[in-house]
Amino acid sequence: MKNLLLTTAIILSFSAPAFAGAGHDEVKTEDHDGHGEMKAEDGHGEEHAEDGHGDDHAKMMMIGMPGDPSKVDRTINITLLETDDGEMLIKGDDLDIMQGETIRFMVKNVGELEHEFVLDTVESNAKHKTEMAEMAGMDMGHEDPNRITLDAGGEGEVIWTFANAGTFEAACLIPGHYESGMFREVKVAEKMAQADVQYSTGTIKKIDAKGGKVTVTHGPLVNLDMPSMTMVFRADEAMIAKMSEGQDIEFVEERVNGKLTIVKMK
Ligand SMILES: [Cu+2]
Q1: 134 C-alpha to center of ligand 1: Å?
Q2: Which pLDDT tens digit goes with each residue over 136-182?
Q3: Under-70 pLDDT residues of the chain
Q4: 228 CA distance to ligand 1 middle (Å)
Q5: Which CATH number fits domain 194-265: 3.40.630.40, 2.40.10.120, 1.20.140.10, 2.40.50.320?
Q6: Taking a C-beta distance cutoff of 8 angstroms, is the pair 198, 222 a contact?
Q7: For the chain, how far is it from start to end, CA to CA, in angstroms?
Q8: How confident is the model over 172-204, as pLDDT tens digits?
Q9: Ligand 1 center to residue 19 CA distance, Å?
Q10: Domain ranges of the chain
Q11: Closest to 119 measured CA to CA, from 155, 153, 163
Q12: How far is the CA of 266 from the centre of ligand 1 (A)?
């Protein structure tokens, strides 16, 4: 039953990116409820025209959705700047995120030019970059929830919930800035269903530290649906360092590259 639930969760998480088919990455919830009321905005580059008036539908993007400020998991500090040798950069903390996290990006522009910080897919950033180049000189005047524009010395925040796993991008799309280096990869790791992980019990019989193998006499392996027996597992160096022969352990086993591996222990 646990396995079935876990499998279902994984299928659901894989089917989420199917939203991608709409030509750009903003998906209106109404497109999925059977009314077929597709907006005529696809491909015309005018999806911002309606922003700010009468658009009361929650927007879901591939990269996620605007975050609830009362549910922020952690803060990532970002600095926008130019360097003496002509580069423009997005510096600051690592952009490694776990699926489901709500992040407060504290963004500071310490440069001497206006910059922006946009979170989106690489494809959407490329498309918006082209649009901004075409509209250069015009007052853009738009602030989407996934974007903040800052004057020199300015600071502000973007609060974002990363609903989908994948590789995304933080960028500044002001003409010429991306080309000068203002983009960074944003990695969102897939979240495993922690609640469904079950520990197995066993006793370590033998440790082969060099080979990265341990022999364990164990009870039923609930995660793999296997009975009690003595088996050889893989384990990495850090894991083996915590083991000693004769020790009773509780552990989590997984198939890693086809090999039974102890991935957690307590
Ligand atoms: Cu910039």
Answers
A1: 16
A2: 766 555 678 999 999 999 999 999 999 999 999 999 999 999 999 99
A3: 1-59, 137-142, 193-196
A4: 60
A5: 2.40.50.320
A6: yes
A7: 24
A8: 999 999 999 999 999 999 987 666 678 899 999
A9: 29
A10: 2-20+66-189, 194-265
A11: 163
A12: 48
Distance 100 CA to ligand 1 centre (A): 28
The CA 49 to ligand 1 mean position distance, Å, reads 23
Chain CA centroid to CA 7, Å: 20
Number of C-beta neighbours around residue 43 at 10 A: 11
Longest dimension (CA), the chain: 73
Strand order in the sheet with 74-82: 65-66, 155-161, 102-109, 74-82, 88-92
- Give helix then strand counts, H and E, for the chain: 3, 17
Prediction pTM value: 0.55
Strand partners, 65: 161
Residue 181 near residue 87 (C-beta atoms within 8 A): yes
For the domain spanning 2-20+66-189, the CATH number is 2.60.40.420
| Cα 168 to ligand 1 centre (Å) | 18
Tokens for 45, please give them: 């580059």
Predicted local distance difference test score (pLDDT) of residue 179: 97
Q: Which residue type occupies 13?
A: S
